[in-house]
## 1
Amino acid sequence: MVKDSFSHVNHWVFDLDNTLYPPSARLFDQIEVKMTRYVMDALKVDQPEANRLRDLYWRQHGTTLAGLMREHDLDPVPYMIDVHNISLDHLQIDVDLASRIAALPGHKIVYTNGSAPYAERVLQARGLSGLFDGIYGVEHADYLPKPEQAAFEQVFAQAGVAPTSAAMFEDDPRNLAAPHQMGMRTVHVAPAPHSADHIEYHTDDLTEFLRHFD
């Protein structure tokens, strides 16, 4: 049973985007538009080149921001403020998800490659504020992003998360490799499954998956 394989877990780590809200909200469509515009302005390139670099840096460095910092010495602070200044009108309060998260035993955190202030806005819009013991953004790992194991190690040290008694819920399969290596239970939250040795469980419905722990 799923519940039995999580019996040792008392630290619950949740990604934010497309994990604690459904991909159908399409918030990342807005963020990608703003990232492309920021790259155009910062690097003085046209839109096709900005889109190419945005995607290339995401693939090579884990996030577009990480690539911009490493390749162009970009200041991350104004970038993070700008690209996360988006509308959350498509998000709805999810009472069922809130009750499932509240019922989980132990320590619960959100860890996102976005910023902590952005995460707080999203959680409020979803009716999930106050359910987590900590909210951690990429800034808490000195802008080193998931999937880098060193990023997880920094955040988990600050949050007091013991990986061998923890579970990670995440939509990006890449970001489950390091948690699995560190001894965490890994749950891929996405519409379609992704086959990989470091993914132990898949769900397309986080609320339904959390019912296993009733």
## 2
Amino acid sequence: MAAAVRGAEELELLERLLGLPGGNKYGVQGERKVPVLQSNSGPGLTGLMTIAAHLVRQARKDQLLGSTAEEKAVVQQWLEYRVTRVNGGSSKEDTRTILKDLNMHLEDKVYLAGNIFTLADILMYYGLHHIMVSITCIIFVLPGVTGALYLFPMQVDLTVQEKEKYLNVSRWFNHIQHYPGVRQHLSDVVFIKNRLYTNAH
């Protein structure tokens, strides 16, 4: 399994994505290794969400925090989910619950906040990367049906029924990893395409 992207590394990836010059000094605090942005000009900032939002504002890319009050609330909701559930989840059951929650939410959405790419997508991608790397994804294509793609995340201990449950997460993850500047040095999760054949002649 790939190592999880956490703390300072994640914030450095975000800095590069945002086009910031870098050079910030990051540390961690406590047993849970909460990220800290160390500052020479005053008190440091603590927490992934706080520091990430600060970097977004510093880069003057506030649209990544949402445009409307509702979008901002949804972005905040998924950032909180990322910190409390994804960072806190360690068991296979936690992973299944996270994938199930995301899959249901993404059923009719391109991005976590609906139709706009936000900080929530970026940080959720970084948080899930180590999970998705351990899953081989297969895309089934129906012959003669344009746009019919079925993404199946395959993990050794998942049943066929479970694999079918995470189609929306796989679609979203594949889309985000190809969003310009997001993946950077992280390994590409390969989605294998297979044709589904029918008995009809």
